[in-house]
Write a structure and sequence with these properties.
With about 350 residues, the chain is of the alpha/beta class. The protein has helices at about 20-35, 75-85, 90-100, 100-105, 115-125, 130-140, 150-155, 200-215, 260-280, 285-290, 300-315, 320-325, 330-345; strands spanning about 15-20, 40, 50-60, 145-150, 170-180, 180-190, 190-195, 220-235. About 40% of the residues lie in helices and about 15% in strands.
């Protein structure tokens, strides 16, 4: 028996799609703010406005940046998360350098309980990214390639319902399929903060999609983001979290797709530079010289340049920032950095 929308027990599936992440997110965010199916729901950290069973589909996953969020995204932190995940890390130090408020949401432990990279690359006794690549290379028709993040043993609440950690993973699994010579990616989330979480999660997993597509030598298909609970926290609603007019979205012109062997060749250089940026014993001049002496594919070079711009900002080397940002060839990243700097300025 089907239920009507007027049925209070009906839980509709809500679907939003766009060519870009910004288009899909903006539609979903406005539905959260104005739609008839939202409810007010208590949570352990305050009231939320919630929409259940939400799918966002992005036709061009490279256009992953959300600019319709009223407060500009910390673009360097979003990119640092991608690097941290790909490296398979769980330490707090690297991420907290780029986002000092992270401890408020994920706890102040030296390692994060639910770290996505550590779970994808180490936790379950294998590197899931490499195994998935091998499996799809061997059998592109497979429907069995699922990356696991959630662990019932580690993540289910205590018997009294209290969480076992301040950092329980919101992402559960990723489902990968090659169809028509392209890699489709479905990301499943148990819970998703539309303001602080969704914009970052889309960046994280579309970047993984792009990297693995490169390892496989296939194109990019669609990215589907399933949130079983999409919500805004009450504090996000004190001023509208969505810009009143859709912002101009600059196109992301970079590619992160590389053959697997080429990725493995350049990755140590990416990590060396990223680590040096977070180590403030390195001067601004030293960092700029290191970057100038390191040859990287353009997409990865632009990522490191944005990390460096944030490292210079935190070192208060404001006069050195314009030259670094000007060297970024990707208009999307350049625009995101400008928005972030207008928001926060010099520390």
């Amino acid at each position: 028996m089907s239920a009507s929308r007027s049925d209070p027990w009906c839980r509709m599936i809500h679907s939003f799609e766009g060519n870009t992440a910004d288009e899909a997110w903006r539609e979903a965010a406005l539905a959260l703010l104005q739609g008839p199916d939202t409810t007010v729901q208590e949570s352990r950290v305050g009231k939320t406005r919630e929409l259940l069973h939400v799918a966002l589909q992005i036709k061009d996953p490279r256009q992953r940046w959300i600019v319709s969020r009223r407060d500009a995204l910390n673009v360097a932190f979003a990119l640092a998360e991608v690097i941290w995940i790909l490296e398979g890390r769980n330490d707090a130090r690297f991420l907290v350098y780029f986002n000092r408020k992270l401890t408020h949401y994920a706890g102040d432990a030296p390692v994060y309980h639910g770290a996505y990279g550590e779970r994808l690359r180490k936790r379950f006794g294998l590197d899931q990214l490499r195994r998935a690549t091998s499996a799809l290379r061997g059998n592109p028709q497979s429907r069995q390639v699922v990356l696991q993040i959630w662990s019932s043993e580690d993540d289910l609440p205590h018997i009294d319902g209290q969480p076992v950690s301040a950092d329980i993973p919101c992402n559960l699994v990723s489902m990968l399929k090659v169809r028509g010579g392209r890699l489709d990616w479905t990301q499943v989330m148990r819970s998703n903060d539309a303001y602080r979480g969704t914009p970052h999660n889309i960046v994280q997993f579309t970047c993984l999609q792009e990297v693995i597509a490169g390892w496989l030598g296939v194109g990019l298909g669609t990215y589907t983001h399933w949130s079983d609970s999409l919500h805004f926290y009450e504090d996000s609603l004190q001023s509208s979290p969505v810009a009143p007019v859709q912002a101009t979205v600059h196109m992301n012109t970079d590619t992160l797709s590389l053959p697997e062997a080429e990725f493995d060749r350049i990755w140590p250089s990416v990590m060396r530079l990223a680590e040096a940026i977070t180590d403030e014993t390195h001067s601004s001049k030293q960092l700029m010289e290191m970057l100038a002496q390191t040859a990287l594919p353009l997409g990865w070079a632009n990522i490191v340049r944005i990390l460096l711009a944030e490292g210079l900002r935190r070192r208060r080397a404001i006069n050195d920032i314009p030259a670094v940002v000007e060297s970024v060839s990707n208009p999307a990243l350049k625009d995101l950095w400008a928005r972030w700097f207008v928001r926060v300025g010099s520390p």
